[in-house]
TrEMBL record:
<protein>
    <recommendedName>
        <fullName>G-protein coupled receptors family 1 profile domain-containing protein</fullName>
    </recommendedName>
</protein>
<dbReference type="GO" id="GO:0042277">
    <property type="term" value="F:peptide binding"/>
</dbReference>
<feature type="transmembrane region" description="Helical">
    <location>
        <begin position="25"/>
        <end position="45"/>
    </location>
</feature>
<feature type="transmembrane region" description="Helical">
    <location>
        <begin position="251"/>
        <end position="270"/>
    </location>
</feature>
<dbReference type="GO" id="GO:0004930">
    <property type="term" value="F:G protein-coupled receptor activity"/>
</dbReference>
<keyword id="KW-1003">Cell membrane</keyword>
<feature type="transmembrane region" description="Helical">
    <location>
        <begin position="57"/>
        <end position="79"/>
    </location>
</feature>
<feature type="transmembrane region" description="Helical">
    <location>
        <begin position="290"/>
        <end position="311"/>
    </location>
</feature>
<keyword id="KW-0675">Receptor</keyword>
<feature type="transmembrane region" description="Helical">
    <location>
        <begin position="99"/>
        <end position="120"/>
    </location>
</feature>
<feature type="transmembrane region" description="Helical">
    <location>
        <begin position="141"/>
        <end position="164"/>
    </location>
</feature>
<dbReference type="Pfam" id="PF00001">
    <property type="entry name" value="7tm_1"/>
</dbReference>
<feature type="domain" description="G-protein coupled receptors family 1 profile">
    <location>
        <begin position="35"/>
        <end position="312"/>
    </location>
</feature>
<keyword id="KW-0807">Transducer</keyword>
<dbReference type="GO" id="GO:0005886">
    <property type="term" value="C:plasma membrane"/>
</dbReference>
<keyword id="KW-0812">Transmembrane</keyword>
<keyword id="KW-1133">Transmembrane helix</keyword>
Length: 391
């Protein structure tokens, strides 16, 4: 009989830091997935109900759909990231490694591009309303397609070079086999697998520099510029009008919240990345505190993906407009159906009463519950030589 007395060290790393990070990641995965799926389900329901009238919702509707789709893909990568944190081992294989980098990097690049394009669209609508061509569905589809293509080109080198690499640990796994007449001890070296990008040190350095510029500095600068110009334009416009129906306070607060939320999620994540660039140039060492900060900062882009649907979909007026249009159409449809059903019911009741005898079924008085009887009198008249019965 063979038994294992010493199971050896588990792959799990029971660390307080890792455990404290796992719960927020789990919450972001559940909340972000549920929210983005709800938005996409609502979009499917609206487009299916309105059909040709969906163009009345405006081009912002397209940005909302693409943003929710990208954020959903980002939140789907959280289980991969969380398992690596807890197990310190990659258990999903080579193909899943490439998919993981595709999903995670899409948040760093594609989401930032879509949010910047949405800010540009609002900027053109308020500051340059004469240029209506930018807001056409065809132009919006072209902008979104271009953003996705650029993001795919930037992500492609990492996705294609990603692979699962084996790391040999100094720990060993010991098994004691009970055999007669003497027990035997067998030791195995522990080999861990990790999903790595596969880029060389030089290539990784330049890729990180390009990501900082394209996915962080440029979108943050443009998004801040667009929303500041929108607020200034609205305030300047409201001063020139004696009475204005523009909710300037609500728009200002909403714009500031959206901008600050984006910056609060992006800046803390990218600052450690910039530090890594300087650490590479000047050969600086990385402390344990810096690694903890990196763990916290890496959570913020997932936070943005989990909460974007609230700021850009739930609070969006065009989404509410779509809900109103669908509700009105369903109400009209139910009204027509209800009217038809009432008419059919009355016809069936008349036919049933005409076909019965003169003594109708007993009824009960609603006040005293005394039994009542309804007399049905048939009058036969001749209409064009035919007999007709009237109640």
């Amino acid at each position: 009989m063979t038994s294992v007395h010493s199971p050896g060290p588990s792959m799990q790393v029971y660390s307080t830091e890792v455990t404290s990070f796992s719960l927020p990641y789990a919450f972001l995965f559940i909340f972000g997935t549920a929210g983005n799926v709800a938005v996409l389900t609502y979009v499917f329901f609206v487009t299916r109900s309105l059909r040709s009238s969906v163009t009345a919702l405006g081009n912002t509707f397209v940005y909302m759909v693409v943003l929710s789709g990208v954020d959903l893909l980002v939140t789907m990568s959280i289980p991969f990231h969380l398992s690596v944190m807890v197990l310190e081992n990659w258990i999903f294989g080579q193909l899943a490694c490439k998919i993981y980098f595709l999903l995670e990097l899409s948040n760093k690049i594609c989401s930032s591009f879509i949010l910047t394009a949405l800010a540009f669209d609002r900027y053109m609508a308020i500051c340059h309303p004469e240029m209506k061509r930018v807001h056409q569905m065809r132009q919006t589809a072209a902008i979104v397609t271009g953003m996705i293509c650029i993001s795919t080109i930037l992500i492609a080198p990492v996705v294609f070079s990603a692979y699962v690499k084996e790391f040999h640990s100094d720990d060993i796994f010991t098994r004691i086999l009970e055999k007669k007449p003497k027990a035997e001890t067998i030791t195995y070296p522990i080999v861990k697998q990790m999903c790595v990008d596969g880029l060389s040190i030089t290539m990784k350095f330049w890729f990180l520099c390009a990501m900082v510029v394209v996915a962080f500095l440029l979108p943050c600068t443009l998004l801040t510029y667009f929303y500041v110009r929108i607020i200034l334009r609205l305030r300047r416009q409201i001063r020139t009008m004696l009475q204005s129906r523009i909710p300037i306070k609500r728009i200002t607060i909403y714009t500031l919240v959206v901008t600050l939320f984006y910056l609060a999620c992006q800046i803390p994540y990218w600052l450690p990345q910039i530090y890594l660039i300087f650490a590479k140039i000047f050969r600086l060492s990385l402390s344990r505190d810096f690694i903890k900060i990196t763990y916290v900062a890496h959570m913020l882009p997932f936070l943005a993906a989990a909460f974007n649907w609230i700021f850009y979909a739930q609070l969006n007026s065009q989404f509410k407009k779509g809900l109103i249009l669908v509700t009105e159409r369903m109400h009209r449809k139910m009204t027509r159906t209800g009217t038809k059903r009432v008419a059919d019911t009355m016809d069936e009741l008349c036919i049933e009463m005409m076909s019965r005898s003169e003594e109708a079924p007993n009824c009960v008085c609603p006040n005293c519950e005394h039994p009542l009887s309804i007399k049905v009198q048939k009058i036969s008249t001749s209409v064009n030589g035919n007999n007709a019965s009237h109640v």
